[in-house]
Design a protein that fits this description.
Shape: globular
Mean pLDDT: 93
Strand order of the largest sheet: 3-2-1-4
CATH superfamily of the largest domain: HUPs
Helix content: 40-55%
Radius of gyration: 19 Å
Order of helices and strands: HEHEHEHHEHHHHHEEHHE
Number of domains: 2
Number of strands: 7
Length: 287
């Protein structure tokens, strides 16, 4: 059944398939970012196994965006689940720092190894992630390979849930994450070939917080917001309907500069998911 769609395509059918997959897996720890996917896995674990049958583990490092840990902890508390937040050391892995197209493999290897060790220390032999059917079909997901190599469980994928299904079931269960925008790690904002460093991660995080503040003051709202470090330029990506108005705000470039980018040129453009997967820094191109 791995990755196949269930016979009943209704929300109720998807819900039943997910709970069945979780129940069949048995007690597990969740690699829990607090995003819509891992939150649903955690909630499904509570429903199928009880709050003692799951453990929430959030990896904390320089690549975790500000505010994400607090939201993750609040939801875990609401579900009655023990929540742990071990430190991970992605930046100690040369493959991660080099920031090639396989960066996520090295990141997930570090994160999953750490979470698995913490889980074992707390009596959980299995780890599950929020990988869904859309993720498995995406050719730019080297992190999934790290999970497969480690026998990581994927109940959303096993039940055939797409991202839309995940949101529909989350809404049915009244989870606050049901409409939460995707919040990938901060390293995903740095163009391939541009080395990942603590400084680059920190200034992307600061810049995104500063840009949100500027938009709020200007009466603009954007569900999606990315500050992309392209090496020689910075691209601020916003919802398309907001981008034009935001581009006319000089305070956007000023906020980015003050966050640590200095005189690096800034452009404002419409948000495109996974955009950097199709863009390469010259250092990663074959001559």
């Amino acid at each position: 059944m791995n990755g196949e769609s269930v016979g009943d395509g209704t929300v109720g059918g998807k819900t039943a398939a997910l709970l069945s997959a979780v129940h069949a897996t048995g007690p597990f720890a969740v690699a829990y970012s607090g995003g819509v996917d891992s939150a649903l896995v955690l909630a499904a674990g509570v429903r199928a196994l009880g709050p003692d049958g799951v453990l929430a583990v959030t990896a904390v490092s320089e690549s975790l965006a500000s505010g994400e840990l607090g939201g993750a902890r609040a939801l875990a508390d609401d579900l009655g689940v023990v929540h742990l937040a071990p430190r991970t050391e992605e930046l100690k892995r040369p493959g991660y720092r080099a920031n090639g197209p396989d960066r996520c493999y090295f990141c997930k290897s570090e994160v999953l190894d750490t979470i698995a060790a913490v889980a074992r220390d707390h009596g959980f032999d299995l780890v599950a992630t929020g990988t869904n059917a859309d993720d498995a079909a995406d050719p730019f997901r080297p992190g999934i390979r790290a999970g497969r190599e480690r026998g990581i469980r994927t109940p959303l994928l096993d039940a055939g849930l797409t991202k839309a299904d995940v949101r529909a079931v989350s809404r049915l269960w009244s989870l606050p994450t049901w409409d939460k925008p995707a919040t990938p790690c901060l390293a995903s904002r740095i163009r391939y070939g541009v080395p990942v460093t603590p400084h680059r991660l920190a200034r992307v995080d600061l810049a995104e917080t500063a840009v949100r503040r500027v938009l709020y003051r200007a009466g603009l709202r954007s569900e999606q917001l990315r500050v992309r470090d392209l090496g020689d330029t910075v691209r601020v990506e916003l919802d398309t309907e907001v981008a034009t108005a935001a581009a006319a705000l000089p305070s956007i470039a000023q906020a980015v500069a003050e966050a640590g980018f200095g005189a690096t040129p800034v452009v404002v453009d419409g948000f495109v998911s996974g955009r950097l997967n199709h863009e390469r820094h010259p250092a990663t191109e074959e001559s």
